[in-house]
Each structure stands twice: as structure tokens, then as C-alpha cells.
Amino acid sequence: MLEWLTAHGILAATLALLGLAVAFGALLGFAGQVFKVEGDPVVERIDALLPQTQCGQCGYPGCKPYAEAIVQGDDINKCPPGGDATIAALADLLGREPKPLDGEAQDIPRVAYIREEECIGCTKCIQACPVDAILGAAKHMHTVIVDECTGCDLCVEPCPVDCIDMLPHPDLAKQWHWPRPPGPGHRPSQPIAATLIASDRQPAPEERAHG
Amino acid sequence: MADFDFPGGIMPPERKTLSNQAPLVKAPLPARVMLPLTQHVGQPAEPVVSVGQTVRTGEIIACAQGMISAPVHASITGTVTAIEERAVPHPSAAVGEAKALCIVIEGNGQDDDWQRMPPLDWRSASDEALLERLQSSGVVGLGGAGFPAAVKAQVRQRHAIDTLIVNAAECEPYITADDLTLRTYPGDVIEGARMLARLCGAERILIGIEDNKPEAVAALRQALSTSNDTTPVELKVVATRYPSGGESQLIQKLTGREVPSRGLPADVGLLCHNPGTLLASLRAVRDGEPMISRIVTLTGEALTRPGNLEARLGTPLHALLSLAGLRPARLSQLILGGPMMGFTLDSDALPLVKTANCLIAGTADEFPPAPPEQACIRCGACETACPASLLPQQLYWFSKSREHDKAELFNLFDCIECGACAYVCPSHIPLVQYYRAAKGEIRLHEREARKAEHARHRFEFRQARMAREEAEKEARRKARLQQARASRPAPEQRKAAVSPTPSDTPQSDSQDSAAELKKLKIAQAAAKAAVRKAERALARASEGGQDPSADVNDLETQLATARENLKATETRLAALQSRTAPAATQPASTTATGPGVPASQSMPTGTTTEDTAKQVRQRKIAVASAQAAYRKAEKALESAAAQNDDATLAAARQKFERAQGNLDRARKALEEAETTAHEPKDTSTP
Ligand code: SF4
Ligand code: SF4
Ligand code: SF4
Ligand code: SF4
């Protein structure tokens, strides 16, 4: 056998290559089975860009279904909570043209507050909440877990005694960050930092000592 | 002078002689103090006093919340008159309202009745006692952001520390608070350094000080020569250059070590403390005095008597300014902190907070309005000046065009916001403002992304829960149906099965169900794998210990989702098996020898024993994690009960009850699984 192979070099090479091809093919197939990705990766990536408010304003029962619909060819401008930022991110991911938002943009994040003394404990809001953010048992007053509430509004409608208010998120103050300067041609909005001693400008030390 | 150096840096006019000529004086007791509950990094403190209550100096009025937090103490003797939102010094005040919960205390004249903690001798006290004391006395880092000193002292648990650095460089113009602290209390600062060095396990102490403070250096030398302690203390006088007081820069200059990008000094075995923090720590331990005062520089050309004051926290700034002889007509800008890194205040009715080291009352000549920003001419001056070896010009472009990922790639977060780049920029670009805005945007975005992720997991959990409930309902319905069918007379059934027309139906039906069974089995395996993965992730996270609890909560949600999914598929599978199994045993179905039937028959019996073993194991894990959750809820309940807060108590109780229920259920499930595992095989047909 060995002799025959050495005698027919070209055949031997072909056989070797064939063997390798089969081996790697098997390996690939095996790896594909073992490291199989669950679900549709594009859907997941779109879902990751959506704000996860789960409010249904896009016309789908949640962000994931909307992500699936986008893959099927639906428009990318249907999510009001996400606003322009989400549309831009989706356009970027999918290589589509950004469109103006279909619907009314939302200004500030809100959370639901249940006026507890008015709550009759009907559990209707619990059934409506997409993220199980409302606590309470039948006939007992209910409360909203502020940290879990996405501000989706879905619990407001079902409440028979209208005891749920949407109020600005209490964390708003914590979300403050330094604003951007107005840009070239303007004086900075805040006379802070180095601009304060601009009149005393001195050049940087000439010889810089490294290490 | 020093053996090493950091790159870049600038030499702005120092303007320190304005305030370092007068000796340190104690400010008279304020008539009223306003104490914000957010004077430190971390969670705000929680008030423990009520309006109308009389408090003594040093009494705790708000206790720390959570892992990173610090308590607040009454800084004068008097009556609590309000606990409400008040304006506090914060950079956001310049653009809008910056309010925080404050406790207001009206003083009893000159009465200063102290409530001290028992003095401790730090040399003989245990580490735990010292840490406990630092925590309960509310000492926070006085130089920078106000990181709780007790939390910083615990760094030893995760890093080996060899050197404690006393950061006395005080490189920013105008500020002389550390200078005066060292001149006045050199011995106490060194003693405090020795104490914290022992606490963190450091073998030596390095004091880094700029050469523009000869009096402080002399005082330290004097104190060192008279002290007799074994810990070696080295005094290193470094050349004056801004920003040598930056933590990383001073470390580089003193030791030659480089703090890694986005890392901490502890990563290279170092711990930095400000002299004021050391003094406050020592006082807390040796004298039992909680942190109720600080040394603050009052300077600027609008003051007639600039200098340093030791003032009670919460003192209104206007009271301090009038002590220093403010000429309101000359005042054009009020700056908290230094001129490079501080921010302007638009009101002087704000309280003195723990982190306020300097207050500059500047005239219009001193601080002329900033010239308008011009286009970057790519001169590279900023790069030369940057002490962190960054590329400020690149960072500027990326921040401006909101290319956050690129800015992060260029180490935006290593920028210490020193302002050196903006200082040298010939185009007057407020570079630091761009970086601060970009950092804020990135942090906000990260936060939102985390929140969205969490909401998604909660949503998925709910979907899974509803799917399980649906599956269970379906299973019950089918069981009822089957029971009804089984109770029907057998001949009729046989006739129906034998009759030629419907004979395909069982076949195609069984084929269908076989395919479905296979699909469900795959789904079940996947769900099991997901549960295992979630369990592992949760175990890892809870082992990590220090992980923010939000992460653990999120992982718990994910695990619960995976479990619900698994339960749903299992219920469906069981229902399907119970449907196909009787179908297969029916006499008529002998004709239906579709490929699926034997599989569906043999699979359950083959796998059930294995399955039950697996189930037992899984349920054991479930019990363990339920137990952990139960314990956690129990602890939360206890602490909520201790705090006497109804809302949190109710929430905690609810959580506790839920956890209890979960635990009971998990235990019952485990028992069931164990009994089935021990019973003979004939139970395998569901
Ligand atoms: S509109 Fe609401 S449900 Fe739809 S994607 Fe946006 S946040 Fe999600
Ligand atoms: S509590 Fe109301 S607003 Fe908040 S997430 Fe639930 S349903 Fe939406
Ligand atoms: S502000 Fe940041 S980029 Fe500018 S010099 Fe300082 S560290 Fe460098
Ligand atoms: S110093 Fe100013 S003008 Fe010069 S490169 Fe830097 S940002 Fe541009």
C-alpha cells in the first residue's frame, strides 16, 4: 500500500487532501452543532438596541417582537421611547436610511406611582405590567417597584379607579452630567477650569523630563 | 529632586501667598448649619433624627446606607429645624437647580455640648475596631471626591499594599489648606498616617510635598525628628509643577510606578491619602471626634482677610466669606475648589461640605471672562502638557463628534480633568468641558443600557412564566380530555380506529407528535443548558462577593427565566408523552408503525431514571439557591426592621415571604424528585 502510494505521488496527494477535507468538514459540522447560536443573531442585535420599555407603542407586544418585525422588513422608526438615537443606531446596524420618528417623542423618563390609599387591589395593573414591576395581592394595595418600572404607561389604562400617575423619574437629578460647550466662536457656557486663569497664561515648561 | 517624573504639566501662577500668610484660625460657631446627606461618594446617608429633636455636637444624625457610604453628624448643638431639599454646592448648580436632602440645625447660641465616642489607642486597638470607628465617624477623603476612608482602608482585603503615600503636593493654584494643616498639626498628620499604614499593612510611608511649602516641610522635619516609631517615614520634596498632586502623577514621581489604565493605586501596591483625611482619621480614633469640621482656604482678591479657617461643616458659605472680609462690590466669581478643577457657584447661601477645600472670591480682573473658543489649529501644545500621556486633541475631536467608542479607545477615562491641556491651548478650547460632557454621556448611556438589559430580562421572565402557565393549563385540559376518552366504552374506540378512513389519522398524528416530541426534547435540552449556564453565572457572581447586588439580581432573574422555560417545555413534553403513550398501547395503533412510535415509547423509559437523578440534582441546586435568597431576604428584613421605615419594611417583608414560599416549594419539589428516584421503574410512565 505504502509502496503503491509512493509510486503514485499525485494520487497520494489527492487522497491526503481528501482525507483532510473530510476530517475538517466533520470537525466544522461538529463545532456547528456544539456551538450552535440560539435564536436569530440579527434579531438579538436589534433587540439590544431597543430601549426595552416594552410599551407596545410600536404596535408589537414588546421590543423583541418589534425586533423580529424589523428583520421581516418593518420600518425602523416606530419606537417612540427610543427616539432618534435608537433610529440612528438601527439605521447604522442595518444599513438602512434613518427616518423621522413615527409618533411623538418622549421628553423625560417617567415611572408609575400608585396612590396607595385609592388603590382597591384589583390586580389589573399587575396583569398589564410587562416587567412585573408591580407588587401586591388581590384586595390589597399595590406598589410599583421604582427600579424595575420602565415607564411604559400600560398600567395606567386598566386601572378602574385611575389611581396611577406617571411622574418624572426620581433619579433624574442623579443623571446630570456636564453639558457640552457651545462650540467654536462662542464663549464657554461655564467659566470653569483652566479658562479661569487664562489671563495668567504661561507657556508649558520647555524641557520636559520624561521618566 | 525626585528620582522619577511624570510627563507634561504646566506652571500656572501659584497665588498661594494670598492665603498662606495668616495662621490657621478656628471659625466661630455658626448660628445655623445645613448638612447635606450626600457629601461623599456612594449612597446618600439616611436621616435618623426628626424635626424638633435636640442634638448635641458630634451626634449621628444620618447613618450610612449600603456598602459605600458615610454617616453625617451634627456639627453644632441645637435643634433640628428641617429635613428637606436644599441647594447644595454641585457643578450642576451653574445650569440649573442642584438640590439634595439636607438636615438643618439651629444652634443654641454659643453652647457647644459634645457627644464624643470613647477614645481608642490605635496601637493597641484591633483592625476591626479601627475600621468600625472610621466608618462610624464619617471620615471621607478630603482632597478629592470624598471617598469614605473606612472603605478605602479595607483595600487590603483584595490588594497587598506596601506603601502609604501622603499626598501633600497641593499643586493647584490658590489652595493652601493642606499647607496650613501640615504647619499647624504636623505631628497629628504623621500619627494619622502611621495609623492608616498599619491598617492597610503598608511597611513605609512616603510624604510627597511640593517645594513651594518650606514652612510645612520644616514643620514635618521637626515632627519626624521627635517621633519615635518603627515605620520608616520618608519626606520627599518635589519640584512645583501642576498637576503633581494628581494621584497617578505623584505616584509616578515618588515611586516610578505607573497606575494601570482605569486602575487604582492599590493595583501597584500603593494607597494615597490627603493630610486632612489623616488628621480627621486620627481625631476620630484618638479623641473620639467624628468628622464635623474641616480646614478650608478662603482666598481671592475680593477678600480683605484671606486665610485658612477650621470651620464646622454645614456653615453657610456667606458666613465664612464675611469672616474673611468679603467686599461684595469687587466679587465677580465665587469658585469652589481650585481655579483649574473647581466650579463656579451662583449663590453663597450654600453649606460648607466635607469635600470643599477652597473657596475663591475672585474679582473681575483676576478671572476675566473666557475668550471665545476657536478652531483647533492642531498645534500639539495640549499633547505636550498632558500629564497622563493622552492625546487631548484626538479626544477633543471624538468628544465633539460624539464618537464615544473611539474616545474610550484613546483612554478618555484616564483623563484626570486637570485642565493642563485647556490651559495651554492657543485656541482657547475648553477641552476639559468637552471631556467631562463626553464622560457624562458615556456613563449615562452605560447606565441606560444596563437598565434596558435588566428590563429585557424581566420581560423575558414574564414571557416564560406565562408560557409555563399556558403549558400547564394545556396539560390539565388534555389530561381531562384523555380521561373522558378513556372512560368511553372501548369497542366504540376500537371500531373507530379500525375503520379505514380514520386509520391514517393516528398514524400521521403519531408522526406529527413524534416530530413535535423530538422538537420538545431538543428544547428541553436547550432549556436545561440555559438553566445550568445561568446557575453557573449566578454562582460566580455571588462568589465574587463585591459585585454590585444589581448584577446578582439580574442574574437571578435570568436564572428564574431559564427555569420557567424549562418547566414549560417539561410540562408540554409530559403532556405529549402521556398522549402518545396510550395511543401506542391502543390495539388499533399496531397498524401505525411510524418511525416515531418506538422512539417515543422507548425514550421515556430509557431516560427517566437518568432524568430523575438529574432532576434531583437540579432541585438540590434550586433548594440551595432558594435558601440563599431566603437568607438574603431575612437579612434585608432585619435591617429594614432596625430602620423603622414602613415602606422598606413592607417591601422587605414581601420579598421575604416570597423567598420563603420559593424555598418551601423548592424543598417539596426536591422531596418529590427524591421519592420518584427511589421508587421502582414503573412510575416512569407519567
Ligand atoms: S415602542 Fe415600546 S415596545 Fe416597541 S420597541 Fe419601543 S420600547 Fe419596545
Ligand atoms: S409599573 Fe406601569 S409603567 Fe411601570 S413598567 Fe409596569 S406597567 Fe409600565
Ligand atoms: S485634562 Fe485630561 S487630557 Fe487634558 S491634560 Fe489633563 S489629563 Fe490630559
Ligand atoms: S492645544 Fe488646542 S489648538 Fe493646539 S492641538 Fe491642542 S486642542 Fe488643538
TrEMBL record, chain A:
* UniProt GO cellular component terms: plasma membrane
Question: Taking every annotated instance into account, which residue ranges of this chain make up the domain 4Fe-4S ferredoxin-type?
Answer: 110-139, 140-169
Fill in the subunit field for this protein: The complex is composed of six subunits: RnfA, RnfB, RnfC, RnfD, RnfE and RnfG.
| An annotated GO BP | electron transport chain
Q: A Pfam family this protein belongs to?
A: Fer4_21
Q: Where, by residue number, does [4Fe-4S] cluster 1 bind?
A: 55, 58, 63, 79
User: Where can this protein be found?
Assistant: Cell inner membrane
Which residue intervals make up region (Hydrophobic)?
1-32
Quote the protein name from its UniProt record. Ion-translocating oxidoreductase complex subunit B
The UniProt keywords, alphabetically, are:
4Fe-4S, Cell inner membrane, Cell membrane, Electron transport, Iron, Iron-sulfur, Membrane, Metal-binding, Repeat, Translocase, Transport
For region Disordered, the annotated ranges are: 179-211
Domain 4Fe-4S intervals: 38-96
Give the family, as the similarity comment puts it: Belongs to the 4Fe4S bacterial-type ferredoxin family. RnfB subfamily.
Question: Which gene is this protein's source?
Answer: rnfB
Residues noted as binding [4Fe-4S] cluster 2 in the record, renumbered to the chain: 119, 122, 125, 159
Q: Where does [4Fe-4S] cluster 3 bind?
A: 129, 149, 152, 155
Q: Does the keyword Cell wall biogenesis/degradation apply?
A: no
Main function = Part of a membrane-bound complex that couples electron transfer with translocation of ions across the membrane.
**Upper taxonomic classification of the species?**
Bacteria, Pseudomonadati, Pseudomonadota, Gammaproteobacteria, Oceanospirillales
The Swiss-Prot or TrEMBL record annotates one GO molecular function as: electron transfer activity
Q: How is the cofactor bound?
A: Binds 3 [4Fe-4S] clusters.
Q: Which cofactor does it need?
A: [4Fe-4S] cluster
EC assignment: 7.-.-.-
TrEMBL record, chain B:
- Please report the stretch or stretches of sequence annotated as the 4Fe-4S ferredoxin-type domain: 367-396, 406-435
Q: Which Pfam families match?
A: Complex1_51K (PF01512), Fer4_7 (PF12838), RnfC_N (PF13375), SLBB (PF10531)
Biased amino acid composition, Polar residues: 599-610
State any GO CC term.
Answer: plasma membrane
Q: Where along the chain is composition biased (Low complexity)?
A: 499-514, 578-593
Q: According to the UniProt record, where is the region Disordered?
A: 467-514, 578-617, 652-686
List the NCBIfam families: PRK05035.1 (NF003454), rnfC (TIGR01945)
Molecular function, one GO term: metal ion binding
Say what the protein does.
Part of a membrane-bound complex that couples electron transfer with translocation of ions across the membrane.
Its needed co-factors are:
[4Fe-4S] cluster
UniProt lists the family membership as follows: Belongs to the 4Fe4S bacterial-type ferredoxin family. RnfC subfamily.
For the keyword Electron transport, the answer is: yes
The annotation note on the cofactor reads: Binds 2 [4Fe-4S] clusters per subunit.
Tell me the subunit arrangement. The complex is composed of six subunits: RnfA, RnfB, RnfC, RnfD, RnfE and RnfG.
Q: Where is the composition biased (Basic and acidic residues)?
A: 654-686
Q: Which residues bind [4Fe-4S] cluster 1?
A: 376, 379, 382, 425
Tell me the PANTHER family matching this sequence: ION-TRANSLOCATING OXIDOREDUCTASE COMPLEX SUBUNIT C (PTHR43034:SF2)
Example GO biological process: electron transport chain
- Alphabetized InterPro entries for the sequence: 4Fe4S_Fe-S-bd (IPR017896), 4Fe4S_Fe_S_CS (IPR017900), Ion_transpt_RnfC/RsxC (IPR010208), Nuo51_FMN-bd (IPR011538), Nuo51_FMN-bd_sf (IPR037225), RnfC_N (IPR026902), Soluble_ligand-bd (IPR019554)
Q: Which organism is it from?
A: Modicisalibacter xianhensis
**Keyword annotations:** 4Fe-4S, Cell inner membrane, Cell membrane, Electron transport, Iron, Iron-sulfur, Membrane, Metal-binding, Repeat, Translocase, Transport
Which residues does the annotation say bind [4Fe-4S] cluster 2? 386, 415, 418, 421
Name recorded for this polypeptide: Ion-translocating oxidoreductase complex subunit C
